[in-house]
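Students often ask what a 'structure token' actually looks like in practice. Rather than answer in the abstract, let us consider ABC transporter ATP-binding protein, a protein of 585 residues. Its sequence is given first.
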Amino acid sequence: MVWKAARLYFILILIFTTFLALASVVNTITFKEIIDSATGTHTLLGLSVFGVIIVRFIYEILKKTVEGIVTYCWQLLDIKQVIFMHRAFVDKVATMDLASFENPATVGLIQRAFSRLQFQLKLYIQSIVLMLSSSVELLVAVSIFFLASPVLAVLIILANLVPIFVRSQYAYGVFMIYRADDETRRKFGYTANIVTDRETLPEVKVDRAFSFFKEKLSNIYAQFTQKQIKNEKRFQLYNTLAEYVPTLMIFTFSIYIASQLIQAKISTGLFVLLFTNIFTFQGALSRFSQYLGQLNLNGHFIDEIREFFELKPNITFPTVGETQKAKLLKKIKNPKIVFENVSFAYPNSQDKKALENINLTIPYGQNLALIGENGAGKTTLVKLLLRMYDPTEGRILINDMDLKDLPEEVLFTLYSTLFQSFGKFNLTIKENLEMAAGNNLSEEEMIKCLKFSNAWEFVKDTKNKLLQQLGPEYKDGTDLSGGQWQRIAIARAYAKSAAVLILDEPTSAVDAKSEMEIFDRLNKEMKVNTLIFISHRFSTIKDAEKIVVLDQGKIIEEGTHSTLMNNKGKYFNLYTIQAQRYQRD
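Now compare that with the structural description of the same chain:
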């Protein structure tokens, strides 16, 4: 992907970095040329001492210029690849089905992949470039060794492969600890967040729970680091032993070239070249093994980015052309929703059914309420309607079309949703509404949406009104109460103007007066649209055109409020219990 994002800059960086990597080799050759020219021995370039110095001066000027170009190219490459990768990341997340966001392993992978995009990818690219450039430097240094003794040169190479192998194994071990303890790391991050988050800090303070979380943090960290310490101890032992091997070979080579100089078989300049090349080689090899280790380590982490981009959705949607899409949009206009013998069991639930034999018809424009105790299947029914999951048995129809035959972009044009755990987007008010609407809205349209949810009551009093930044983390950003955030969320849901509005506990954090006004508007405004809502408050349910009562995944009652009260069944009992609570003295 980096190749696609910034191919030219990558090539320039690779070429110029390789040029810079040869600086140590140039230093070694310079020493040799100066000594040989000063002693009157034949030189490689045939230059005088002053000639060598002038050439060296030109090289230094060129080197400084190249260093500036490389730094500039790195900046441009980083900017381009970050933009490219973040866009690709969002595009990939957009292709994932909603069920994926309920899978802890998948969510963990998404979060890790995103964090890798911030810095690991750049480190990975740097490791590639630096390893390739140092390999060129290393190759030149090895070639110089061959001038003295090909056999010793080969032995030196083989000896230095030993510590390289040890370091690569250590890098893999670090990654495996990280991967194996991903849940531990997430627990550590969550626990740390508790003592820094403004929503949890007041309760922690009042309960004087800082000592509790301090111990919890320490225990989690100790659990993670025990394996790291054990791995580090093992690495240092093996690495120290492995380093003895190349040290011995370098010592042998030094004795060999020293004997060659004493026997006058090589010049002083060549001896200096070969001897200083030992340090050049060691430096190049050290850098090469370091970059190789980093590449190995970063490569394992980059695998998580690759793994993320290779994720397959659990739910597949059909793909159609624009003409067919237009036909489908026309066909599902004014949708009638039908559940036919629908049963469903969550994955890994051991076939325990969350819904069983659901038969339900929702005509277009109906105001439908779903009620039942926790775990009755209300939210699960909505999830199937949104196709977060497919039914285990039966089917769901939209205007006689199976839900599975609708492309994702067609299906989601039908719905506007407000989930129980709604999003709190620290954007401007305007951005919040236009994000949901999918297009630009006029000022009048935005105010209408805000008045619908009673949010205009507080938005009009903010400094920047529709352009007001939400979130105290930002300059001039304003903080909202739980109820105010929920009113913004209701305004977002209304702004989409979809045929079907689905609300899950839409006013759980809203005061009673605002709740009454919001539902009065819902009942008035949604007469030409379908409204499906889940609520435990009977004051909001009793005005629904149809009430469906679920219990243990089954529909046990359905009808209007008066009908269900006359039946004196489950609905009557739940309503009576809640009413008695309000009637207590």
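One point worth highlighting: Residues 2-309 form a domain with the ABC transporter transmembrane region fold fold (CATH 1.20.1560.10). Ask yourself how you might have guessed this from the sequence alone, and why that guess would often be unreliable.
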